[in-house]
Amino acid sequence: RILATHAGELAAVIVEPVHRCLAPVPGFLAGLRAVTQRLGIVLIFDEVVTGFRLALGGAQEYFGVVPDLAAFGKALGGGFPLGAYAGRADLMEVVNEHRLPGPHYAWSASTAGGNPISCAAGLAVLDLLAENGRYEFLHASGRRFREQLAASLLTAGVAGQVLGDGPLAQVAFSPVPVIDQRSWLASDRARGRAVMLELLRRGVFLNPMGTKLYLSLAHTDAVLEDFAARFVWALRTTSPGS
User: Fold this and answer.
1) Domain span at 165
2) What is the pLDDT of residue 242?
3) Would you place residue 106 in the very low, low, confident or very high pLDDT band (cuts 50, 70, 90)?
4) First and final C-alpha spacing in the chain
5) Measuring CA to CA, how many Å separate 10 from each of 4, 13, 137?
6) Are 206 and 226 part of one and the same domain?
7) 169 domain-assigned
8) Residue 112 in this model has a pLDDT that exceeds 80
9) DSSP strand E in the chain: where?
């Protein structure tokens, strides 16, 4: 209803297919695709988190919903700074410089665009991820990791929810299910930050500003088991609202 009311004012609708580690409600992405197509609104997926993690084709392949434009980064570079965007041929044509001079051109530039080292890293990452069994490994690791996190919460006697899909995981310190941004904001995020800081002190290099944990092919079972043990320790040395 909101999109229909404001269709004439909207240049595009942009969404994260998985909002950090909150999976979409079944049918939401397909419904959004259908509505935007009917109203002639461009649909953009921010796949910086999901791209090349959920599947080689990202969330588009995983959920079977194709947007008009998509942005990628992070996993694409395999640790090197690299970003990319892609989309429908007619939309991508708008940034083609052969349209200059003229009114139907959109300027697109990047200070480090086309950096040869980052691009070489990106190509190597794509070759590696295209090998048989890579995504089976990532998804199996993610399932085991989320189970370990849930078991750690139980062992430490801490109320929490383990979110995520594929190789993505996140802990929300809440006694009730976290299903959207509102319920996430109602969780004990101060406890989450305290736990992450304790893990940092215990030698786990991560971003203490959030509880998002993304696995890669380098994370073996031994690494995940070691993390789970340190996670229990961090849980026991923090308190609610800390």
Assistant:
1) 134-236
2) 79
3) confident
4) 41
5) 10, 7, 40
6) yes
7) yes
8) no
9) 12-15, 42-46, 69-72, 84-87, 161-163, 168-172, 212-214
On whether residue 96 sits in a domain, the answer given is yes
Q: Do 109 and 143 share a structural domain?
A: no
User: What pLDDT was estimated at residue 101?
Assistant: 82
pLDDT digits (tens, 9 = 90+) for 177-205: 999 999 999 999 999 999 999 999 999 98
Taking residues 212-217, report their average pLDDT.
Answer: 94
Query: Is the pLDDT at 166 greater than 80, yes or no?
Result: yes
Query: Residue 241 domain-assigned?
Result: no
> Which residue, chain included where needed, has tokens 């991820």?
129
* Distance between CA atoms of residues 235 and 227, nearest Å: 12
Q: How many CA atoms lie within 13 A of 241 on its CB side?
A: 0
- Rounded CA gap, 94 and 223, in Å? 46
- CA 216 to CA 163: how far, in whole Å? 17
Q: Are residues 105 and 144 in the same domain?
A: no
Q: Tell me, yes or no, whether 26 lies in a domain.
A: yes
Q: How many domains does the chain have?
A: 2
Q: How many CB atoms lie within 10 A of CB 88?
A: 12
- Is residue 68 domain-shared with residue 116, that is, in the same domain? yes
